[in-house]
Amino acid sequence: MFRMGSCSQKSGQLPCVKVHMKLRARSLIEIMLNKTVIELLRTIENHGYLALVVGGAVRDHLMGRPVKDIDLATSMPLEMVSDLFSAHRVGKSRDFGMLSVGYKGMRFETTLLSDLLPGNGSAKTGHEYKSRIFKADAGRRDFTINSMAMDAQGNIFDPFNAQADIKSRLVRATISPVDRFYEDPIRLLRAVRLSAALDFEIDPETFRAIIKLSSFIAEAAPERTGQEVLNICSLSGKSVGRGIRLMEQSGLLTYVLPELQALKGLAHNPAHHPEGGVWEHTLAALEASEESDPVINLSILFHDVGKAASLSHKNGQPVYHGHDKAGVDIIRNMGSRLKMSSAIIQTMCFVTENHMKGLRINEMRPFKVYKLMSNERWDVLEAVIKCDLASRDSQEALKFEQDAASLRKRLKSWIDNGDNKVTSIVSGRDVMEITGLSQGPEIGKILKKTLMWAVDNDIRDKKLIQKYIEAIVKKNP
Prior knowledge:
Elements: E1 4-6, E2 16-19, H1 28-32, H2 35-46, E3 51-54, H3 56-62, E4 71-74, H4 78-84, E5 86-88, E6 98-103, E7 106-112, H5 127-138, E8 149-150, E9 156-157, H6 162-168, E10 170-171, H7 177-183, H8 186-198, E11 201-202, H9 204-212, H10 222-233, H11 237-250, H12 252-256, H13 258-261, H14 278-287, H15 294-302, E12 312-314, E13 317-319, H16 323-337, H17 342-359, H18 366-373, H19 378-390, H20 394-410, H21 412-425, H22 428-435, H23 441-456, H24 462-475
Parallel strand pairs: 4-7, 10-11
Antiparallel strand pairs: 1-2, 2-9, 3-4, 3-8, 5-6, 6-7, 8-9, 12-13
Helix pairs in contact: 8-10, 8-11, 10-15, 11-14, 14-15, 14-19, 15-17, 15-19, 16-17, 17-19, 18-23, 19-20, 23-24
């Protein structure tokens, strides 16, 4: 736990804190980051301008969390920043006064401080000037815990008492929640993400504003919404589950992922799903995930999404025949709407379409197991099936894991070499030479049947394969 001291403060000056330093009296920011950041901040200051580390980096340091992305704010005109450093504008960042600055192998998102005040010489880098400038800028930032700054000397500027909110474990909008959300609707989802990631509660006034403005999330650019969904799914399964519940409670889910909202109220046969209905099962499967992989967690969320389009009843109980196939189009529509990559969409479709096969993997013929396990997306499917089973019975999940490991060991030589291994055993050209048939659909049928037989029986002998092909032709001349 860090210890905070005090620094002299004049009337009207914002609070600042310094952490007691040990060893070689290195400043807090040197402990927090590294000399590269110090050099960058001081280079800007030496030109007579203000430079601060801002936002999540300060928050995460004070919480003892790893500092990942480092954002800066400066009073230096961005044109001058571009002249001094390797910098470029990102996307539509021109509208927001933002640069991506490269310095000694690191990159920093750098924004221009708002409401610059008159000043000259050393006054522009003095503590009082920094306090006044940052207070005006911080008032436009999204949440108090993201509205702190730190300078090269280790001073922390905290105009909205964010450290108290960290201690109380609260996500609170800065000044006016409604105003902050109207400025940028993506902040509605960001509040959920921060709450889920940090295990913080959302301040009641802030949460009421999210509920009131939930439909406003539709105004956000779809690619930004999609990225926030991926960011949420990059957390651990339990944290993602917390985020999805908050989205549902606030009304955001209806506008962001209506496909998941549609699962609410769909019942399961309790004999097969003691954990509850489709919604409850989906969250239980998600919360069984120990992964922080957005594709795995998103695939878990959507593995049963086709049930909303395939409900029927048998003997008074709900059944969902064909939900695996029905989910594919739903996923494609969602992925297209939120501008997700084709790789993510294809993986989710593969998982949804095949998750029922995987549940019966011990009953499948070896060739079909080989086709699943040799697919580059098998690891994601395997992780989803484990969580699917764990949501209802941990022993079933363990049995699947053991069965899959046993089958993989049996098929290892085929799986490790993939299709190259199979085609090296027999190819379409081989079939044509053995049968004397011309290229056409019949060759493909014979080849597929031969490959299935070879893998099922672990046959690699060319002479045996030739005899098998000759027998097929003889049986079906």
